[in-house]
Amino acid sequence: MKKFAIFGNPVVHSKSPQMQNAGFKHINFDGAYEKFLLEDGDKIKKEFLKNSFCGANITVPHKEFAFKNADIVKGIAQKIEAVNTYILEDEKVVAYNTDAPGFLKAIESFGKIDKVLVLGAGGTAKAIALALKEQNIDVTILNRSENRLEFFREFGIKASTFNNFKIEKFDLVVNSTSAGLKDEELPAPKETLENILKYSSFAFDCIYGKKTPFLTLAKSLENKIKDGEDMLLYQGVLAFELFTSTKADNSLVEAMREGLKEK
Ligand SMILES: NC(=O)c1ccc[n+]([C@@H]2O[C@H](COP(=O)([O-])OP(=O)(O)OC[C@H]3O[C@@H](n4cnc5c(N)ncnc54)[C@H](OP(=O)(O)O)[C@@H]3O)[C@@H](O)[C@H]2O)c1
């Protein structure tokens, strides 16, 4: 049996095992996927090899450590400098970022998008902004603090704080902050958000499983809204394809979605 895991801290609430195991069952793949609580991110490669995992996902707060520790980093992850997937290939630890393409897949249902505002400047914002830029979509970052904005500017992405932001019309506004995750906060001052959302058509929140204050406000201003469930699902489906060397069809995607919903 091939062994897989999700590394995180905390990891107890992760839904990846139930989603990936549902996928394995659906295609009769002889695999088992477990949670792995990792305290020291710098030990990620050592633990991955020591436990004979064939593949793994990596979640908060280890994505940057996983990037630094990998033998080979492929695709857009080289720019993002954070990875969420490890695969053992020819005794080398090969790393990928499936959050970025997973996000693009999740917003496909909105149709054509030309201009996006991303709220937040953390790891998820990096993945989203670079994925959008690769598709030649115009991206702007808006964050509460200045600290992390230089990363984006180096890629030619506009980035502001609340103080120096000029309101424009965006097709899509994305909340990639953790505001609303464990609290009822908005990701930016209410008046600023209202002035943005009254001109936009779509709002996406990376947070899943709840209607955040951001999505509630966006809906009240007639935006079409979507939470982060599909982003979680598709990053998992893309990792599953790497784990099993199979191409996911619709029935597999739906089996994994059902897996996500298991209690
Ligand atoms: N659906 C999915 O598959 C998926 C995947 C990945 C992440 N996520 C979600 O995405 C969110 C961000 O994750 P991350 O890993 O990118 O986090 P992170 O690296 O810690 O970045 C958090 C960002 O949020 C900002 N922020 C935090 N609290 C805020 C508040 N109260 N008001 C305004 N801004 C605030 C921070 O601003 P400063 O720079 O000023 O600190 C920072 O820019 C989390 O809610 C996570 O659950 C979902």
From TrEMBL:
- The Quinate/shikimate 5-dehydrogenase/glutamyl-tRNA reductase domain, residue ranges: 113-179
So which domain of life are we looking at?
Bacteria
Describe the family membership recorded for this protein in Swiss-Prot or TrEMBL.
Belongs to the shikimate dehydrogenase family.
Protein name per its UniProtKB record: Shikimate dehydrogenase (NADP(+))
Q: Which residues form the Shikimate dehydrogenase substrate binding N-terminal domain?
A: 6-85
Keyword Transit peptide recorded: no
Classification via Pfam families: SDH_C (PF18317), Shikimate_DH (PF01488), Shikimate_dh_N (PF08501)
Record's catalysed reaction(s): shikimate + NADP(+) = 3-dehydroshikimate + NADPH + H(+)
Q: In which organism is this protein found?
A: Aliarcobacter trophiarum LMG 25534
